[in-house]
Amino acid sequence: MNELQSLLSPRSIAILGASADLNKVNGRTLRFLLEKGYRGSIFPVNPKYDSIAGLRCYPDLGSLPEAPDLAVIAVPAAQVLPAVRELAQRGGRSAVIFSSGFAEMGESGRALEAQLTEVARKAGMRLCGPNCLGLINAFDGVVATFGQFAEGETPAGPVGFVTQSGAFGTAIAALARRRSLGLGYFINTGNECDVDFVQMMRAVLDDERIRVGAGYLEGVRDGRGLHALAARAIVLGKPLALTKVGRTAAGARAAASHTGALAGADAIFDGVIRALGVTRARNEEHMLDMVEVLGRCALPGGKGLGIVTQSGGAGVLMADRAEETGLQVAVLSEQTRSALAEVIPGFGTTGNPVDVTGQFVADPDLLLNSVRMVMDDPAVHVGVVWLQLMEAHVERLLKIFNKINEIVKKPWVVCWVAAPEEALRQLRAAGIPVLRGAEPAVDALAALVRYAEARRHWLADAPARAALRLPPPALPKTGGAVGSLD
Asked: Quick one: pLDDT at residue 472?
């Protein structure tokens, strides 16, 4: 993170255009910094005020007692370039620019944005934006944003999220919070006049507190940089789940009008990331499914899928999806099937998918033993347990799943359709991935298997690693759940 240290982990923050109304766009950043307990120096800058929220307010950057690591620029577009020039003269190291009215507005805006870039590069400053919501580093209480996501709890967790869309990124972050996926970083890069998505994500992944990266992209300007990022991620053992839009001509035009981004050749993007184990998510929920499993599960040793279900129909659906996504519905050994036949009712199924029926409600050991037997089979590398409703049996099921998590050493997930929210929360707090649909559960496990395979192949290719001058990586872990993401 060293190159972007002042941007992502500043020791001091100046707020240009700070307002005494802490509910306005240019006042919210100060309120958030105070609420979240930022430990560095805070310098409100506005000639209208002597003090704001008990802090001395300075008339200009030249009056500050020190050059700020980070300046948050919350002024109209016409005042941004003079502010960046003043910051450069003062020795500022980085800036987050909220203001819109640049490349997304057309040729004149692009010209103005180019001037920002030139000033920053000559001064050695780094810029996030313009036309962005800013960023949150939840680990260190850095809240350089006016966005709604900062209004709620922002518990630091091992997920780093970078987005090129502010509003949609905020929606994704809010969904992540509901799923107990703690975001250590929330970053909106906006127009990317200087620091782009690839550079920001690389800095995030280099933070040892981050375990998995997630991102929303509309366009990538640096294909080589994207390849290097994907390689870096796979060596660090930090999976990436990315949603890239602009797959069609209509989407590409929409992206250009939104942030001025060039969507680029979608097939090229696909080829670059898939070869290096990066998961391309179709939408926001799909992305978070991937993050939940990639972040909570250790790596599997193969692609054999074991399915335990209380519904034959759901089992067929998951078997179909497994084959479509490259998983293998494992053929259970005769020994495993014989053992299952001892515990499963005669109207159940001992093949894979294994249908335990609804009888496990009366006999809790039925589900526990069935899952254990399936996951112990040598042909099974990952597993899914499917059930529905069961609102009257939540406490019993939570005990069963926690026990399974203690004894099963291979990656597995729960697919609980119409589960009570409290049950989901408790399972995730225990480090157990839980999804709400049969196909999403299989898709997420398929992503985990593809990532594990790609990483094994990459690590075996020492010359390729040496060509990128990357350090020797630690060997990937294998086993069951590796911990909570909240």
From this structure: 42
Domain CATH number, residue 119: 3.40.50.720
Which two three-digit tokens encode residue 483?
């911990």
Structure-token pair, residue 412: 């597995």
Q: Tell me whether residue 235 is in a domain.
A: yes
Question: What is the tens place of the pLDDT at every residue in 370-402?
Answer: 999 999 999 999 999 999 988 888 999 999 999
CA 455 to centroid of chain Cα atoms? 19
pLDDT value of position 392:
87
Say how far apart CA 419 and CA 424 lie, in whole Å. Answer: 7
**pLDDT reported for residue 71:** 99
Q: Reduce the DSSP state of residue 390 to 3 states and report it.
A: coil
What is residue 476's predicted lDDT score, i.e. its pLDDT?
35
Q: How far is CA 196 from the centre of its chain?
A: 17
- 212 Rama class: left (phi>0) / alpha (psi -120 to 50) / beta: beta
Tell whether 61 and 86 lie within a shared domain: yes
For the chain, which residues score pLDDT lower than 50?
Answer: 471-479
- CA 456/CA 440 separation, integer angstroms: 24
Q: Determine the Cα angle at 292 with ends 289 and 295, to 5°.
A: 140
**Into how many domains does the chain fold?**
3
Does 150 fall in a domain?
no
Cβ atoms 84, 16 nearer than 8 A: no
Q: How far is CA 418 from the centre of its chain?
A: 24
